[in-house]
Amino acid sequence: QLWVADMTYIPTWAGFVYLAVVLDVYSRKVVGWASGQQQTADLVIQALNMALITRKPQDVIHHSDQGSQPRFNWSSQHRSAQLSVSVH
């Protein structure tokens, strides 16, 4: 299994809402998501946690653009070590 993650923003009248998603490359379905008022690594981790809890993969490769959330690389690797997820 291969999952990819990304984060985007949605402009609203009250300001920006940030949306982090995890996508299953094979099925092209969103398997995890989280939204919030700040663009943080924790938001991406919440989306990854949702995907892991709902899909319960045996093995999965998780890829994200790690440039915009500096702490995400460490956070996802720490979480991945607990759950046998390969982070790229």
Topology:
Elements: E1 2-12, E2 15-24, E3 29-36, H1 41-55, E4 60-64, H2 72-83, E5 85-87
Parallel strand pairs: 1-4, 4-5
Antiparallel strand pairs: 1-2, 2-3
Helix pairs in contact: 1-2
How does the major sheet shape up? 5 strands, mixed
Element pattern in H and E = EEEHEHE
Q: What Rg do the Cα atoms give?
A: 13 Å
- Give the helix/strand class: alpha/beta
Give the helix proportion (percent range): 25-40%
| Poorly predicted segments | 74-78
Biggest sheet strand line-up: 3-2-1-4-5
Cα-to-Cα separation, first versus last residue? 13 Å
* Count of DSSP-assigned helices: 2
Task: Provide an overview of this structure.
- This protein is α/β, with parallel strands linked by helices and 88 residues long.
- Helix content is 31%, strand content 42%.
- It is built from 2 helices and 5 strands; from the N terminus they run E-E-E-H-E-H-E.
- The chain has helices at 41-55, 72-83; strands spanning 2-12, 15-24, 29-36, 60-64, 85-87.
- A 5-stranded mixed sheet has the order 3-2-1-4-5.
- Strand 2 and strand 3 (29-36) form a beta hairpin.
- Helix 1 (41-55) packs parallel to helix 2.
- The longest helix is centred in the middle third of the chain and has 15 residues, at 41-55.
- The protein is elongated and about 40 Å long.
- The protein starts with a strand and ends with a strand.
- Mean pLDDT is 80; it is low at 74-78.
